[in-house]
């Protein structure tokens, strides 16, 4: 026996067919190959194993003791191979699988509901797992492969990740309808914010560096009276009359609070990209790609 020899799947299928049918012609018909191809596969298998598997007679092939000994193992291997093929086929056809994504709670609250509902209706066998993490944990969740991909705006992304823009969002002012700046017909300027009590996220968190940097550039000192970790908290504070909030317009509009108005902030207008973020060099599964496509359609249709 050749110590380095390993039977191929084709050889094992030929062996099993001949063992069951006892004729090369019948085995060839079952495998959709020529009779000579089956004969060659059996010969290669016998040479590699260093033993005869079938005794040839004028009418049929009779399994040897070695063939009978080998049969259960060959059947198990082929069952496992067929099962593996079926698993891969189900994964590629979205008949099973899992999608795991990282996203901050703020983004999840307005980006995920419609996308997850649509995806679940189309692919009920695929499970979607949402890892709602803090902004400063977002990139590490992706790089560490705790998730398949992320949806967000990475802070200092670096060369280890790749981004694909989903939508471009802009900073906006959210205030009650009786607020002094609510009457602005188009946009509120940064300089107009001076002196007004404001609510925003805490320093170094999410969009806060963007807010502070732009305010300094515009030469305005912001009167921040409350700092929060979650924009949903800022919204109820604003609705309670505790001050206007600065936040991404997409989140504010998605909240849909009829007691609040959303006004874009201009001069300068500040935007940020919300992106699909993946680890560089890591491919996405068919389920992940399909989920991203579903999310893109949901965003496009509003």
Q: Could you explain how this protein is built, in words?
A:
With 302 residues, the chain is of the alpha/beta class. It has 3 domains: 9-92, Winged helix-like DNA-binding domain superfamily/Winged helix DNA-binding domain (Arc Repressor Mutant, subunit A); 98-165 and 273-301, D-Maltodextrin-Binding Protein, domain 2 (3-Layer(aba) Sandwich), CATH 3.40.190.10; 169-271, 3-Layer(aba) Sandwich (D-Maltodextrin-Binding Protein, domain 2), CATH 3.40.190. Helices cover 43% and strands 24% of the residues. The protein is built from 10 helices and 12 strands. The strands form 2 sheets. Strands 3, 4, 5, 6, 7, 8, 9, 10, 11 and 12 form a 10-stranded mixed β-sheet that branches. β8 (197-201), α7 (208-218) and β9 (223-228) form a beta-alpha-beta unit. The longest helix is centred in the N-terminal third of the chain and has 28 residues, at 65-92.
| CATH class category label of the largest domain | Alpha Beta
Overall 3D form: rod-shaped
| Distance between the amino and carboxyl termini | 67 Å
Gyration radius over CA: 32 Å
Q: Please give the CATH architecture of the largest domain.
A: 3-Layer(aba) Sandwich
What is the domain tally? 3
> Helix and strand succession?
HHHEEHEHEHEEEEHEHEHEEH
| Main beta-sheet annotation | 10 strands, mixed
Helix content: 40-55%
CATH homologous superfamily placement of the largest domain: Periplasmic binding protein-like II
> In CATH terms, what is the fold-level topology of the largest domain?
D-Maltodextrin-Binding Protein, domain 2
Secondary-structure class: alpha/beta
Helix count, DSSP H or I runs of 4 or more residues:
10
Stretches where pLDDT falls below 50 for ≥5 residues?
none
């Amino acid at each position: 026996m050749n110590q380095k020899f390993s039977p191929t799947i084709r050889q094992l299928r030929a062996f099993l067919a001949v063992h069951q049918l006892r004729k090369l012609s019948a085995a060839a018909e079952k495998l959709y190959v020529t009779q000579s191809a089956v004969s060659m596969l059996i010969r290669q298998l016998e040479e590699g194993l260093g033993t005869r598997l079938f005794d040839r007679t004028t009418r049929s092939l009779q399994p040897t003791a070695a063939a009978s000994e080998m049969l259960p193992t060959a059947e198990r291997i082929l069952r496992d191979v067929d099962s593996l093929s079926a698993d891969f086929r189900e994964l590629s056809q979205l008949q099973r699988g899992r999608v795991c994504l990282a996203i901050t709670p703020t983004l999840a609250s307005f980006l995920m509901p419609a996308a997850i509902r649509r995806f679940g209706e189309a692919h009920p066998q695929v499970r979607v797992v949402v890892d709602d993490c803090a902004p400063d944990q977002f990139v590490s969740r992706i790089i560490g492969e705790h998730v398949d991909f992320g949806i967000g705006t990475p802070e200092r992304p670096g060369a280890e990740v790749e981004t694909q823009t989903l939508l471009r969002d802009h900073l906006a002012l959210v205030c009650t309808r009786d607020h002094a700046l609510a009457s602005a017909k188009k946009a509120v300027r940064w300089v107009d914010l001076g002196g007004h009590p404001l609510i925003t996220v805490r320093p170094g968190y999410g969009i806060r560096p963007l807010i502070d940097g732009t305010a300094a550039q515009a030469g305005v000192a912001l009167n921040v009276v409350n700092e929060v970790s979650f924009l949903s908290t800022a919204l109820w504070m604003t609705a309670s009359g505790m001050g206007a909030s600065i936040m991404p317009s997409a989140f504010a509009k998605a909240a849909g609070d009829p007691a609040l108005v959303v006004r874009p902030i201009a001069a300068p207008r500040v935007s940020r990209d919300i992106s699909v973020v993946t680890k560089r060099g890591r491919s996405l599964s068919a389920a992940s790609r399909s989920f991203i496509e579903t999310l893109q359609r949901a965003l496009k249709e509003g």
